[in-house]
């Protein structure tokens, strides 16, 4: 299984923490059903005013499709300054550092 | 446990894949023993000429110390253009999307 990691981050004004969970729980349910998604970690930095996510997909095509879809969704929310990068996962090095893959 | 996620990426000229594993296996053993590190995923993108990693630490101080240490190490290897961001993990949203935390 060729894993693809996608990292998104972008300017975000909150809510943070429990408020973020309440506001975005429905979106999380939707993202959980995304084709090819293994998992997503939700990230937030109130001090820097940035949020995002780290995604692992089980194939590169699903990762690319999601990257386009999520970029468009964020733009529709009025988000600008989106940074999105895709990477192959080096599974052997990651195993040495206990990555849960 | 307040988890902190650190994302690093930077210009990289290879080696990639198995060659990267061979070149950096010793470094991976060293990083595996880093205080507070839960895990690291090693990332590489030969087409874009970038590599990096996604780290989860079990406390923010360990994450900040590692971020400084690894930035200095990369600079000592001649790496420039390092992008490093730290985030809190939203555990509740991440649980909805099956994150292994």
SSE layout and pairing:
2 copies of one chain form a homodimer.
Chain A: E1 4-11, H1 18-32, E2 37-45, E3 50-57, H2 60-76, E4 83-89, H3 91-96
Antiparallel strand pairs in A: 1-3, 1-4, 2-3
Description of the molecule:
2 copies of one chain form a homodimer. Chain A has 101 residues and is α+β, with helices and mostly antiparallel strands. Chain A has a single domain (4-96), classed as Alpha-Beta Plaits. Helices cover 38% and strands 32% of the residues of chain A. The first copy, chain A, is built from 3 helices and 4 strands. Chain A has a 4-stranded antiparallel beta sheet, covered by helices on one side. In chain A, strand 2 (37-45) and strand 3 (50-57) form a beta hairpin. Chain A is globular. The mean pLDDT of chain A is 97. Chain A binds chain B through residues 5, 7, 9, 17-18, 20-21, 24-25, 28-29, 31-32, 37-46, 48, 50-52, 54, 56, 85-90, 92-94, 96-101, and chain B through 5, 7, 9, 17-18, 20-21, 24-25, 28-29, 31-32, 37-46, 48, 50-52, 54, 56, 85-90, 92-94, 96-101.
